[in-house]
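User: Run a structure prediction on this.
Assistant: Running it now.
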Amino acid sequence: MELLTALLIQLFVIYPSFSYGSGDAVAQQETQINYFEEGIKFRDNGSWIRALDLWEEGKEKLAVEGKSDPRLGIAYLELVTDNNLSFYFEQASEMYFWSLSGNNLKDFQQEIEDEAYRVLPLVKDGEKNEWKSLMNSDPQALADKIGWFHVVVSTGCFSGYAPVASGTAGTVVAIPLYLLLVRIGWIPYILVSLVLFFIGMKGANRIEESTEQQDNGIIVIDEIVGYLATMLFLPQNWIFVILGFFAFRLFDILKPYPIRKLDMNPNLKGFGVMIDDVLAAVYGNVVLQIVTRLI
């Protein structure tokens, strides 16, 4: 189970892509198709051992190149287990895990998604929900449901897909936006921040509904708006740009009252996602306003 979970994280979080398949992938599958399809023919004709031997031959050829074909491992395991070919159990396990560990897995995203959903009934509810969320969070899959505009804005130009500390990554993205907006005056600055708040609230609602996960980690528009609110009416220099970053992240992580209570309320949906970061910004801004009067 751990291997498949790690695999899904790699496919849908660490290396998100905007299209499935490529010319190289098609060419590669054409060179591999004989192993898979010919094996299926042998299997359907009752020549099970010949099918297994052919798939193993395909594995040996691909392994030399550091590649794999999930179809071979899945078909091999199904044939062995469905027909109780106990002599091949060990090879089937090895074949299955090899097929899900190559460096070309993005070429077989659909097959891996299908296999993941097939084995979902075998895993715990917590892992099952995590898998579904990962699959539904893929940029292309998400854009098909809510549109690229909300995907790009809500994830902070995809900074929300950072493998670690996505909230911090989103806050970093907010800095150049702050530097741009602060040059045109505080009134436009506030108006843009309010527009982003409402767009973020709508986008967060849609992402939560699509991924079936409250406050999905890929949503970082709340951190972007939160940082902008933190920097409101503060001195415009790099010292406060940095202080604002750390002050906001501190209160966003600590979540003093009533932030944590709001953050954990599922009924607030997108509004809850946005408002808890705005309140963290209020705490940060008050602290920094005090600092400006002490220095």
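The two ends are 55 Å apart (CA to CA).
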